């Protein structure tokens, strides 16, 4: 089991999920969906489907404490669970054929992000052909000589800033093949590069301040202003990102001084070959052409960020941006058509394994949805906290969210699924609903280790085993788990 691949891990989890659908009773909450074309709500359940007026009175009558504007503006577009409507339904166990078909269904359902990953791979393949990366890495290594630690601080902090403001998560997939070689050229191992990117993204997300895909949609679903509790989340962001950077720096300095202390030391040669470090021994010069190529390449990320934050772009538009960038770079570098296509396809093929992992992960969610056990877990989680003290209640909710994110590794999906059900529990417990929002946010700490989200695709890109990563990250996980529980205990008593 020590060297088990990510693909086998995902299939084992899928098999266990299928078994769960035979053991856990099926159930569901009625859901509420807004239809913009008819300006009506649709309440859907196993025994009921009806249209309702799209008014605040309708929401209040259903005990859905969400402003009407959140639906009509499109801020909430997923079906919202209706509190108090849980019903046990006929069991829908997922058998062998459902298990076998789940990866295929998952790849179809996740086609948008899979195409993004493949097109990013194609762009990287074209970039590698130009030599612009090699020239840039050589230049940057010279600039940071003796101050390599700055690279860790800047990368982790900037990505965390993206995570806390606009949910910089899936977009980081594009950064590993670019930045990890930079960290390796600076004398660190691939784990330092992976950690600076992935941990920065997770910490930013779990300490979201203005992230529309997380804290804003969760606050709307809880029926409160997203600014409620903002100061506490800012403090949490500062604490967690500081601890994370210090943790990475400690490991990085140890590896730099004693390379044999690296968790990946026995893979050093293979990783250097994979990231093309040996090929970079003959560094091409930085020319005007290569500088222009780098500008176009970096502009792709600028356009992506602007599109997501200002124009409501998502995977299709982002993927088209990277394709356009690859074509422009091909023209600037004067790459012949046949060689361009070959480089693009070769680069995409390097990330095909990542695409399979994404499909496997999505297939697990489909198994759970088809087996109708998600709402049962949610209903039971809400009932076990009844009668607890404030401190025990809030920390129990926090641990519950850590577990739920394993089942539903989507921040926006988790918000609309759980917040209408869990937020009213704060009223009976005697504290503000923003505390429930915070338990949801801080519960994203589980993304540090759960294999059903972006972790395994990120590890696959970097050719790092899940077991090696867990050995690296578990001390930080324990530290942050304790810190978040202490912070929540303090917040509930303020």
TrEMBL record:
Compartments, as annotated in UniProt: Cell membrane
Top-level division of the source organism's lineage: Bacteria
InterPro entries reported for this sequence: C4_dicarb_anaerob_car-like (IPR018385), DASS-Related_Transporters (IPR051679)
Pfam families, per the entry: DcuC
Keyword vocabulary terms for this entry: Cell membrane, Membrane, Transmembrane, Transmembrane helix
Transmembrane segments: 7-24, 113-137, 149-169, 175-198, 234-252, 291-308, 314-335, 398-425, 445-466, 472-490
Keyword Protein biosynthesis belongs to the record: no
Membrane topology, from the record: Multi-pass membrane protein
GO cellular component: plasma membrane
Primary location group: membrane
Full protein name: Ion transporter superfamily protein YfcC
Taxonomic source organism: Rhodohalobacter mucosus
């Amino acid at each position: 089991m020590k060297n088990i691949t990510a693909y086998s891990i995902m299939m084992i989890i899928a098999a266990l999920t299928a078994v769960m659908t035979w053991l856990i009773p099926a159930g569901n909450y009625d859901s509420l969906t807004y239809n913009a074309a008819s300006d009506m709500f649709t309440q859907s359940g196993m025994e009921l489907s009806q249209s309702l007026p799209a008014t605040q009175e309708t929401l209040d009558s259903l005990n859905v404490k969400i402003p009407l504007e959140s639906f009509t503006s499109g801020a909430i577009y997923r079906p919202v669970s209706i509190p108090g409507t849980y019903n046990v339904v006929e069991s829908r166990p997922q058998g062998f054929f459902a298990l076998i078909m789940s990866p295929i269904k998952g790849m179809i359902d996740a086609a948008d992000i899979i195409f993004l990953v493949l097109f990013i791979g194609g762009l990287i393949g074209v970039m590698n052909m130009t030599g612009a990366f090699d020239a840039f890495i050589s230049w940057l290594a010279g600039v940071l000589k003796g101050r390599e630690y700055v690279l860790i601080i800047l990368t982790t902090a900037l990505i965390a800033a993206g995570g806390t403001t606009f949910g910089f998560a899936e977009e980081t997939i594009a950064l590993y093949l670019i930045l990890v070689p930079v960290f390796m050229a600076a004398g660190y191992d691939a784990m330092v590069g992976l950690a600076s990117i992935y941990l920065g993204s997770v910490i930013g997300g779990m300490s979201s301040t203005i992230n529309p895909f997380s804290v804003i949609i969760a606050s709307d679903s809880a029926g409160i202003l997203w600014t409620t509790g903002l100061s506490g989340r800012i403090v949490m962001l500062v604490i967690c990102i500081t601890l994370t950077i210090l943790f990475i720096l400690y490991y990085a300095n140890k590896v730099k001084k004693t390379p044999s202390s690296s968790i990946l030391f026995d893979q050093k040669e293979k990783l250097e070959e994979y990231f093309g470090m040996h090929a970079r021994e003959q560094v091409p010069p930085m020319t005007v052409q290569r500088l222009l190529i780098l500008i176009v390449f970096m502009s792709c990320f600028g356009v992506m960020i602007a599109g997501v934050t200002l124009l409501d772009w998502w995977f299709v538009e982002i993927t088209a941006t990277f394709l356009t960038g690859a074509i422009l770079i091909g023209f600037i570098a004067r790459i012949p058509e046949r060689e361009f296509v070959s480089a693009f396809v070769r680069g995409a093929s390097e990330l095909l394994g990542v695409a399979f992992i994404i499909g496997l992960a999505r297939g697990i969610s489909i198994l759970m949805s088809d087996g109708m056990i998600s709402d049962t877990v949610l209903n039971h989680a809400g009932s076990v906290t009844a009668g607890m003290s404030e401190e025990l209640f809030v920390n129990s909710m926090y641990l519950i969210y850590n577990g739920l994110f394993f089942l539903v590794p989507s921040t926006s999906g988790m918000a609309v699924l759980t917040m209408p059900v869990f937020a009213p529990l704060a009223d009976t417990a005697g504290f503000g609903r923003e505390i429930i929002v915070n338990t949801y946010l801080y519960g994203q700490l589980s993304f540090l280790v759960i294999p059903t989200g972006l972790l395994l695709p990120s590890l696959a890109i970097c050719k790092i085993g899940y077991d090696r990563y867990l050995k690296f990250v578990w001390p930080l996980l324990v530290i942050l788990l304790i810190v978040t529980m202490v912070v929540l205990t303090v917040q509930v008593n303020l």
